């Protein structure tokens, strides 16, 4: 029963609760009913952060003077560490004083950037399929949401010639995300050059959301590596996946000083800095050497082989060269859409697989399995699916 006559703001009607927020509640309910649910849906790393990172967090949390509010722009040590990380792995030069802004995860950056650049009615280009937050945040900001299609036949890259045919005069922002989630596709420098030229030609801010570049990917790429990219592009990055620190909420925005200032103007009115021990421990994480990434990836590689076997049992087609933390696969034609297959597996053998439709209608013939499940559990899931299918 409604306790009063208060209605939420209209913008609440434009978005729904995040799919995984609803789905996790359903999976919890099924577990409480005694079902042995295996969740292969969400990209939430189960592996721990590096021991030295945890030790630093413990040490710094025990210090008495580390518990106050922190600077809005992150401590200098953190900005320096982010800068060196970009130099080492992406060969990008950043001024730590004003070209990098630590964030509480890259997800919050999507909101800050949108609020910093987009007026109600401005156009925002959002990939289909794509990470759902780009679209929902655009709706909350009352932007004019313009989906652009990603197609398997174009290696899941935007078709810029098609986009050029549209009226782009009111478009302010374009979201891209390479290495791509959910498709696992990668972009090369040629594409990054083209998209930067496209952004400059049409005065569209290009944002590359880049949290997956260290997962099952041979060479890390940043859009900011392209000459002149910083003039028009912003890159979001994150330690959630690369360092198994998703719950810590640490990410960063990198761009030119002016753009960073706009983002800061929004962000500094929303939070009051990041817990200092967490920032200092993040510095340790960013200083880890290449062996860290190798060890993490060795495990993901084993898991991916098992997930391929599961996809084979489901008669799904996939590209062996995908990057990132998921396997994205086309479902057999007998299914009208991925929801049908996902429900069959969930209710038939208590295994949850993400249906691709949640990433947009171009994903409806695909499913996505996360590599954030250990090998024993993946074996169990495989066994259950095999039994169901026989
Ligand atoms: C494409 C993409 N962008 C951003 C995020 C958010 O990551 P973070 O934990 O850094 O907020 C995710 C998380 O799943 C993602 O898949």
Automatic annotation (TrEMBL):
Pfam families linked to this entry: Aminotran_1_2
Keywords annotated in UniProt: Aminotransferase, Transferase
EC category name: transferase
UniProt-listed InterPro entries: Aminotransferase_I/II_large (IPR004839), LL-DAP_aminotransferase (IPR050881), NHTrfase_class1_PyrdxlP-BS (IPR004838), PyrdxlP-dep_Trfase (IPR015424), PyrdxlP-dep_Trfase_major (IPR015421), PyrdxlP-dep_Trfase_small (IPR015422)
SUPFAM superfamilies with a match to the protein in the record: PLP-dependent transferases (SSF53383)
Entry's transmembrane regions: none
GO MF annotations, alphabetized: transaminase activity
This protein's name: Aminotransferase
Organism for this UniProt entry: Carboxylicivirga marina
